[in-house]
C-alpha cells in the first residue's frame, strides 16, 4: 500500500484564497494588512524564504516592508528599526528572519518586538500564552501542521503523537498544540534512547530535527501520519543540491498512511500561516480602533 500524499501547495492555495477574501474585506474599510520583514546577512536560503513571504503578501492583497542589513550591522540599528515598526500603526506584523549573526542576542531581539505584532509567536509573552492554552499568535510551522492534520480529518483525540526535535520554533510549540488537541505526546531528541521504539508507536509522527532522511520506513508504524518539517539541502551524493526532508520518503511512503513531501509540504503552509497571523493581527487592530 502506498501513502496518500498531503500536498502543502494545494492546501496553501485553498487557505490563501480565504485569506485574500478577508484581506479584501479589511481593505474596503481602509485597512491594508502589512507585514514587516527584517533580514540580516546574505544567507541564500534566508533570502529565498523572505522573498516567498513578500510574494505571498502581495498575492493575498497584503502589503509588506522589507529591510535588509549587512551581516556586520550594529545590533543597535536593528533595535531602532524594530522600535519604529512597533510604533507604526500601519504595520500589523513584524518578523526578524532567523538565524541572526553572532553579534546578536536573538532572544533580546525577539523580546523587542511588540507582542501584539509578533506574528512568529516567538515573544516570551506569546510563548507563555500558548502554554496556558490561550494563544495570541501560534508559531507558523506548527500552526501549518495542525491545519494539514485538520484538512485530512486525522483523528487527534487519544492519538499517540511523537515529535522528534525539541526546538523553540517547532518541537516545543508543536507538542503544546497536539497536547491541547487531545493527543498523548512524546518529544524525542538527541539524547533519546532507542528512538525507533518511540517512533514505531506513533499514530502521528512529526520529524523536526534537521538531519536529512534520518527517519526511515522501518521506524514508522504501518498506516501512520508522517509530517516532515525538515528542509535540508543535500551537500553530496547523487541528489546533491536538491532539497530533502528529515524523512526518507522512498522507504516511508509504502509504510505510512499519509505523508507530507519536501518540498511542497510543510514549507508552503508555514508561509501561509504567517499570512494568516498577519491578517488576524490587522483585523484585531481594526476592531481596537473602532471601539
Ligand atoms: N523569524 C523566522 N520565522 C520563520 O518562519 C523562519 C525563520 N525565521 N527562519 C527560517 C525558517 C525556515 N522557514 C521556511 C519557510 C518556508 C519554506 C518553504 O516554503 N519551502 C519550500 C521550498 C523553498 C525552496 O525552494 O527553498 C517547500 O518546502 O516547498 C521553507 C522554510 C521559515 N523560517
TrEMBL record:
Instruction: Tell me which Gene3D superfamilies the record gives.
Output: Leucine Dehydrogenase, chain A, domain 1, NAD(P)-binding Rossmann-like Domain
Q: In which pathway does it act?
A: One-carbon metabolism; tetrahydrofolate interconversion
Enumerate the spans annotated as Tetrahydrofolate dehydrogenase/cyclohydrolase NAD(P)-binding domain: 139-285
Asked if the record carries the keyword Amino-acid biosynthesis, the reply is yes
Protein family according to the UniProt entry? Belongs to the tetrahydrofolate dehydrogenase/cyclohydrolase family.
**What does this protein's UniProt record list under function?**
Catalyzes the oxidation of 5,10-methylenetetrahydrofolate to 5,10-methenyltetrahydrofolate and then the hydrolysis of 5,10-methenyltetrahydrofolate to 10-formyltetrahydrofolate.
The name on file for this protein is Bifunctional protein FolD
Please tell me the species this chain comes from: Denitratisoma oestradiolicum
The upper taxonomy is: Bacteria, Pseudomonadati, Pseudomonadota, Betaproteobacteria, Nitrosomonadales
